[in-house]
Specification:
Helix 3 crosses helix 4 and helix 3 crosses helix 9. Strand 12, helix 7 and strand 13 form a beta-alpha-beta unit. The chain has two domains: 192 residues, Medium-chain alcohol dehydrogenases, catalytic domain (Quinone Oxidoreductase, Chain A, domain 1), CATH 3.90.180; 136 residues, Rossmann fold. It is α/β, with parallel strands linked by helices. Strands 3, 5, 6, 7, 8, 15 and 16 form a seven-stranded mixed sheet that branches. A six-stranded parallel sheet has the order 11-10-9-12-13-14, with helices on both faces. A three-stranded antiparallel sheet has the order 2-1-4, with no helix packed on it.
Length: 337
């Protein structure tokens, strides 16, 4: 089989195609023929910058997102059968409950990932994917989709009619917007250009705020909600936006910290947090149960992700360079099918 290896902090040039024997499943394992895999911003952090909040091997098979067809099952496997369509769980050992360091092993980091033609997985580290999704569409969900789902459902529950604030056009934000609309929520999105604003509206955003024209965008959020504020905020901007998020938050709303981009100096004014009885929590993707719950919602709503581009397997390095340049809108996917 063919597979790629990359070096931690070694840049895109370290992404090298090689070969290895196709493994056979041991007891309790399944072998999948990978059909599609996808990039997340974590890959840029790990490969280009060498920085990540969890352990990463010095040399590893990248990509946490991957889906494929079961082609062999080991002794004792009864959940899956040959030809089942499955997605890999990003944190294979995190099956349910709260996150802990015991569950920190993750694909494309401390464990080899999905940029390979075949992948062995424990039976419990896979989930069935919705039938209406193509391989490429299904590959968009394991990391960004589960993160967005966990953010909206894993803490303060999202209720119909509430307001969700999303930031920008990254994959987590786009999927959070789509999930929020499935719940019957109102969505306010922030972005930087008219073209992106129009795109977000076609995806379902009720209101869009240009944060370049409105740097104090929390005022606009409060105005658009009649002073109520956002009940849920999908916070991806980090230190540069957290104070605005706190000012835009409903009195007992929830800020879900997905991304955290450092600033030269801390921009958090703790007085703004003291003025609420809301909550703030860090999101570490999600567990297998979150993944299964998300898939049920995706299936029920016939939801499809935004795909920016699809590259063939032998052009993975070109795909990574394109993704790292940051000019995509939606998921960048590698297709093996």
């Amino acid at each position: 089989m063919r597979l790629y290896y990359a070096g931690k902090g070694k840049g895109g040039e370290s992404l090298q195609l090689t070969t290895a024997p196709i493994p056979g499943p041991a007891k309790g394992e399944i072998l999948i023929q990978v059909k599609a895999a996808a990039f997340n911003f974590r890959e840029v952090m790990i490969i280009n910058k060498g920085t990540y909040s969890l352990p990463v091997k010095e040399t590893f098979v990248p990509l946490a997102d991957g889906v494929g067809e079961v082609v062999a099952v080991g002794e004792g496997v009864n959940t899956y059968k040959i030809k089942d369509r499955v997605a890999a769980v990003v944190f294979p050992e995190w099956r349910d409950g709260s996150f802990s360091i015991d569950f920190a092993a993750q694909l494309g980091g401390s464990l080899d990932g999905m940029l390979t033609e075949y992948k062995l997985l424990p039976e419990y580290a896979a989930v069935l994917i919705p039938d209406h999704l193509s391989w490429e569409e299904a590959a968009a969900f394991p990391c960004a989709g589960v993160t967005a789902w966990h953010a909206l459902t894993g803490g303060r529950p999202l209720l119909a009619g509430e307001t969700v604030l999303t930031m920008g056009t990254g994959s987590v934000s786009l999927l959070a917007l789509q999930f929020a609309k499935l719940f019957g929520a109102n969505v306010i999105a922030t972005t930087s250009t008219l073209a992106k604003s129009n795109f977000l509206k076609t995806l379902g955003a009720d209101e869009v705020i240009n944060y370049v024209d409105n740097p104090d965008w929390s005022v606009a959020v409060k105005a658009l909600t009649g002073g109520h504020g956002a009940d849920h905020i999908i916070e991806v901007g980090g230190a540069g936006t957290i104070t605005q998020s706190l000012k835009a938050l409903h009195l007992n709303g929830a800020i879900n910290l997905v991304g955290w981009l450092a600033a030269e100096k801390p921009l958090l004014d703790i007085n703004h947090f003291a003025a609420t009885v809301g909550s703030m929590r860090r999101i570490a993707v999600g567990n297998r149960r979150h993944h299964q719950e998300m898939n049920r919602a995706v299936k029920a709503g016939k939801l499809k992700p935004v795909i920016d581009s699809v590259y063939p397997f032998d052009k993975a390095r070109k795909a990574f360079d394109y993704f790292a340049a940051g000019k995509y809108l939606g998921k960048v996917v590698i297709s093996m099918s």
